[in-house]
Design a protein that fits this description.
The protein has helices at about 20-25, 40-45, 60-65, 85-90, 95-115, 120-125, 135-140, 160-170, 200-205, 225-230, 245-255, 295-315, and strands spanning about 1-5, 30-35, 50-55, 70, 90-95, 150-155, 175, 190-195, 205-210, 235-240, 260-265, 285. The protein is of the alpha/beta class and about 325 residues long. The two termini are about 25 Å apart.
């Protein structure tokens, strides 16, 4: 059996280190592990690969991979793999949502504290050598306590559940929207709403965290009308995908102080263009899609990949299987 690793990205951390393939060869001597550092020769290698670890495949590459039975994406989002040929096939698709969940949740907590305590404003004042106690108190929203605030989660997947646990431990009231509210709620979530009740969640929340996948229903989910449903001092946090938010509408809402602030880790276009108006919004905290960064990333990836490979070889159900029709 052949397992092909083909990951090529300009950002070093997204590429599998050499030790991943070496360790797989040691632990699974019955598996031929091929590790490509570029896409050169990928079509030839795909022809007899049974398992592929990759960000994406083109439809024509997939058609030529006659032996392919399982694709694993080291990303949480798999929209780039959801093409009709793969969806209609019996090839299993898994992703790394469980790898990224706890790390991204820590980032969300950091964003909440930064917004609540006015840390971006403090940094700007420090750079100007200004003692800005009064300026920070007069700002909007004022520095405030996190305990007792209401956190509204849009999405209760691996990231949402991890955020809920941490927010609840901080004394926050956690409410959430999930696609299937009949699945119930985690212990850390006080109330679950159906998607059509999103406006109700927005109206109650001091912090709104977007952790939903991109689907036709969620693209542009937060636009002019939904921003108008939020409290005037509420903050929006997006660690899901950039297209969940209408960036023009958010820019306008922040400029006119219709909401208290925002923190974005993901954007419609990445890298964020240098001429984007988002850069100049003082009430917006920007992080460069860094929520999932950790020095332990590939250790965490390896744990999932190796466990799933053991399951695959034993003909057992895999972890983190994607519903290809729903796209997550």
């Amino acid at each position: 059996m052949k397992l092909l690793i083909v990951l090529h990205h300009r950002f070093e951390l997204w590429n599998a280190p050499a030790w991943v393939a070496e360790k797989l060869r040691t632990e699974f001597p019955q598996v031929e592990v091929v590790h490509l550092n570029s896409y050169e020769g990928v079509e030839e290698q795909l022809r007899d690969a049974e398992v592929a670890i990759t960000w994406s495949l083109r439809a024509e590459q997939f058609k030529a991979a006659k032996r392919l039975r399982w694709i694993h994406s080291p990303a949480a989002a798999v929209h780039q793999l959801i093409f009709p040929e793969l969806v209609a096939s019996d090839v299993v698709l898994t992703n790394a949502r469980e790898v990224h969940g706890p790390v991204v949740a820590e980032h969300v907590v950091a964003q909440i504290f930064a917004l609540a305590k006015g840390l971006p404003a403090a940094v700007r004042l420090q750079q100007q050598h200004l003692w800005g106690q009064e300026a920070m108190w007069r700002g909007r929203p004022r520095p405030r306590e996190v305990a007792g605030a209401t956190l509204g989660l849009v999405g209760l997947g691996s990231i949402g559940r991890e955020v809920a646990k941490r927010a609840s431990a901080l004394g926050m009231r956690v409410i959430a929207v999930r696609e299937h509210p009949e699945k119930g709620r985690p212990e850390s979530v006080e109330q679950v709403f159906a998607p059509h009740q999103l406006d109700e969640l927005l109206a109650q929340s001091d912090y709104v965290v977007l952790a939903a996948p991109i689907t036709p229903e969620t693209r542009g989910l937060i636009g002019v009308a939904r921003l108008a449903k939020m409290k005037v001092d509420a903050c929006l946090i997006n660690v899901g995908r950039g297209p969940l938010v209408d960036e023009d509408a958010l820019t306008e809402a922040l400029r006119k102080h219709k909401i208290g602030g925002a923190a974005l880790d993901v954007f419609e276009k990445e890298p964020l263009p240098a001429d984007s108006p988002l850069w100049d919004l003082e009430s917006l905290l920007i992080t460069p899609h860094s929520a999932g960064l950790t020095e332990k990333l590939w250790e965490r990836h390896y744990q999932l990949i190796s466990e799933n490979l053991r399951r695959y070889l034993a003909h057992q159900p895999l972890l983190a299987v994607v519903d290809k029709k729903r796209g997550y």
